[in-house]
Structures are given as structure tokens and as C-alpha cells.
Amino acid sequence: MRKKYLAILLSLLTPLLAFAQDANSKTIDERINDVFAPITVAIESVVFFTVTIGGFEIPFVLIWLIFGAIFFTVYMNFINITSFKHALDVVRGKYDKADDKGEVSHFQALTAALSGTVGVGNIAGVAIAVSMGGPGATFWMIVAGLFGMSSKFVECSLGTMYRNYNADGTVSGGPMYYLSKGLAERGPGFAQFGKVLAVLFAIACIGGSFGGGNMVQINQATQQLIEVLGGESSFLYGKGWIFGVVMAVLVAFVIIGGIKSIAKVTDKIVPLMVGIYLGAGLFVLAVHITDIPAAFGTILAGAFNADAMYGGFVGVLIMGFRRAAFSNEAGIGSASIAHAAVKTDEPISEGIVALLEPFIDTVVICTMTALVIVITNYGGIGSEEAYRLGSAGGNAAGIGFTSAAFGSVISWFPVVLSVAVILFALSTMISWSYYGLKAWTYLFGENRIADLSYKFIFCLFVVVGSSMSLGAVFNFGDAMIFAMAFPNVLGLYFLLPNVKRAFNEYMRKIKSGEIAKN
To answer: For 61-83, what is each residue's pLDDT tens digit?
Structure first.
């Protein structure tokens, strides 16, 4: 069976070798892009195919994620609100037990998963959404983040419920395991269906870890560092591979130790950088404190404004939902891989902790970015120029908008923001290396050779991503990440009753005192 999976993977990787046979004078970047371009176009046409609603072309994956989030919220009786306080108690360790099975604490599992989502998207993506869609996009971003909390609860509960305990004491979990093991409980026909979904998810996760979770991150961090060091006059200009090697060594040093080592890094980087970022945001808002009521009024008015810049009400709604879905990855399934390593004998408790992720990532951090931009009126909100830059400039334009907004009050903050981009990129790569590794070992077995081979390839891609402008490869990685949503959310619908039964039993134990606070 594993030989079959290996053959499938090799068939996907063989195009990488084709560029070596190209005898023309194109650069390596161009030759690799030429190979990946048709593959990327084909995958994007499937993953990001659109449906027309009210005259707007909407990516179906966005509908798939948002509808799932709303359905899970209603089915679980608005658990995103009713269990919020309990989630804070659990993550603070009030229910921790030293002898529980697992590798990391609730807090470490949360920060490891957050490090995979909190990053460039919160800084740059939100700026683009607000600048293109207007302040109203912020409102719909918050709404989508609140619903996304329920998706995270469901998938991370299942990730812990169906995890595997390996002989060496490590834990493996995530969609690969709950799709295959969970659906198998429903009978032989579902068992085969579950295996197919699990394999599709694992292949997409591996591709996403190399692309969107690795090369995209290091490339953005490299470009940001070169810009800070003087752009074309920087000693790193044209030599991004030097920074790539340094980052590859750092990544290797962390990931070789597994999730325990990863958690020890992320539980320091994530709180530190989030704290600095939010602190600066609060300072900017304090300076503009008299403008806050008007800013909220502008956001609410823009949320339902039929004359908004980006196509009116529906356009603003889509822009806000898209940014939230692409930022917190609720429904993608990736976070459940990290949460599965938690020390607990009550899987539902980790699902409850996980619902804090979209709240922190989208409702808090993304909203802070949006408020700072709205209140300082940077990025030419809703203007033709902002729309042009946002469409063409991508993350570079977004970081520029955010940097200018913070810099208007804190002159030195753009430098700190650049450091934040690099650290967020590092933490994202570390977390995605773990996600990809677990998908890799699911296909090829939990053994030392599979483990080290994946980590070597991942670190090699760090260097490649830092030194090349591989647009097609980067788009391929992003498409693969969102391809994970299709098998994952589909499986969640079938397994949702299992989660509800486990949740009801868990709450019964809490209320009866069977599960007591420390």
C-alpha cells in the first residue's frame, strides 16, 4: 500500500526534474516556473473554481468553509460562545493532569497551532482587504472568525479523539487519522471512503507544507529583510540564499526534536510577537482615542453599504469572509495535527481550547490591524489606487499599508514590523513542517528514514524559497493548502454526531465534578 502512495507522490514530483532537460537560456527560476505553471493552473482551476451569485464570482472553497462553519455552530448550539470561558480555564491549566497521555500542554498545543496561522496574512492580507473592500470588510471578517471557532472545535476534538500513540512515545493525529479511523466505524464501505479522503488530505498537506507553509513564508521574509537593509544596496540583494541557509539551520534545529521542541519555541515566539503587535496597536488607538467611535461607525456603515468600493454589499462581505477563512484556516484541518499532541485524556477539552484560535487570530489580531488602518486612514481605503495596488502588489503592498499606518504614530515601528514578519514566517514554517511530517509518515510509515527524509527535503525548500521567485510554485502551495478543506470538511459532516455525543458526556463530567479543577 505504501509503495502505491510513493508511486503517486513520485508521479507528482517528476515534473521537477523536467527543467533540467531544458537547454535554452532561461534562468533556473523561469525553467521551474515553466514546469509548474500548467500543473498549478490545473490544480487552481479545481480548488478555486468559482460559482456566480448575485453577479459575483465566488470561490467555491470559500462557500465550502463558511457554510461548514455556520452549520457546525448551529449543530453544536453555538459552542463558540457558550464554551468560551471554559476554554480559557482549560488553556490556563486548571484541568491539567501530569499523568495524561500526550506530548505538550494545552497552552503549548494552542501556540504551536497559532504559529501556523498568525503571520503575514494578519499584517498584509487584512490591509489589502480593508484597503480594497473598505472598512466594512472588517465587520464580516469578525463574523467569519466567530463562526470559524466552531469549525476548529470540531476538527481538533476529532484530531485528539482518533490519534495514534506511537511506540517511541510520540503521538500522531489529524484529519488523516480521524477520516480513516472515524469513518471506518460506520462500516466497510465507509472505511474505503475514509481511506481515500485521508490519502487525498495527506498529499495536499505535504504539497501545502512545502509551498504555502514554507517557500512562500521564507520568500516573503527574505524580501522584507532585504528591503529593511537597503533594498538593491543591501548585501543580501541577489543573495537571498544566504538568509535561506541561516533560516534552514534554525528550522532544522527546532524540528528535529519533534513537537516538544517546536512547542518550546512557539510558546515563546507567538505570545511575544502577538503581545508586541497588539501593544503597538493599542497605543495607536490610544493616540486616536477620540476617533474610535467614528471608526466603528464607519465599519458598521461600510458593512452594509451598497455603494462600497469593492462591488457593494456582497463584495465587501466576500472580501471580509475570504480574509478570515484564509487567515485562521478553520476547516482546513491543519491545526488538528498540532492539537492532537496534547496531554489529555479528554479529547473534547482540546477541541474547546482550539476554538480560541480563530478568536485570537481573526477577531483580535486581524481586527486590530484593520482598526489601525481605518483610524489612521492609511492605504487609501476604498480608493482606485488602493484597489490597483492591492490587486497587483499582494503582500508587499499590504505590509506597506500596515507599516505606514503604525509609522504615522510610532515612527520606529516599521522596523519592528519587519522583524515580526520574519519571526512570524519562522514560526509558520516550524508548525507547517510538523503538519507535513505527520502527513508524510501517515503515507510512508512512522520510521526514522521517513522522518529524516521529510525534514531534509523541507529544509532544502527553505533555501530554494529564499533565493528564487517561483510564482507558480508558490501558487501551487497555496492551492494545495486549501485543497485540504474538501476532504476534511466532508468528513466532518459524517463525524459530527460523534463529537456531539463526546461533548455532552464531557460536560456531564464537568458538571458532576468527575473532572475537577486543580
So the answer is: 888 888 999 999 999 999 999 99
End-to-end Cα spacing for the chain = 46
The three cell numbers of residue 195 are 481511506
pLDDT tens readout for residues 27-49: 565 666 677 677 778 877 888 88
Q: Is the dihedral of CA 26, 29, 30, 36 positive or negative?
A: positive
Q: Which of 338, 358, 309, 346 is nearest to 152 (CA)?
A: 358
| β-bridge partners, 53 | 56
Quick one: which of 197, 153, 111 has its CA closest to 486?
197
Say how many CA atoms lie within 13 Å of 258 toward its Cβ: 15
Q: State pLDDT tens for residues 354-383.
A: 999 889 888 888 888 888 888 887 545 544
Specify whether the backbone of 165 is left (phi greater than 0), alpha (psi in -120 to 50) or beta. beta
Task: Name the phi and psi angles at 450, rounded to 5.
Answer: -60, -40
Neighbours of 328 (CB within 10 A): 33
- 51: phi then psi, degrees, rounded to nearest 5: -125, 150
Nearest Cα neighbor of 472 from 32, 9, 18 is 32
Residue 262's closest CA among 158, 115, 440, 425?
115
DSSP state, residue 56: E
Helix orientation angle between 384-407 and 413-444, rounded to the nearest 10 degrees: 110
Condensed to tens digits (0 to 9), the pLDDT of residues 91-101 reads 887 777 767 77
pLDDT exceeds cutoff 70 at 337? yes
Q: Using CA atoms, how far apart are residues 156 and 503, in angstroms rounded to an integer?
A: 12
Please compute the mean of the pLDDT values over residues 227-249 and round it to a whole number: 76
Query: Can you list the domains of the chain with their CATH numbers?
Result: 30-510 (1.20.1740.10)
Alpha helices in 239-289 (DSSP H): 240-255, 258-287
Q: Which residue has the cell 464607519?
A: 298
Q: What are phi and psi of 515, to 5 degrees?
A: -110, 105
How far is Cα 117 from Cα 429, in angstroms, rounded to an integer?
A: 10
Q: What is the 3-state secondary structure (H, E, C) of 124-177?
A: HHHHHHHHHHCCHHHHHHHHHHHHHHHHHHHHHHHHHHCCEECCCCCEECCHHH
Helix (H) or strand (E) run with residue 308 in it: none
Side-chain-side CA neighbours of 396 within 13 Å: the count stands at 13
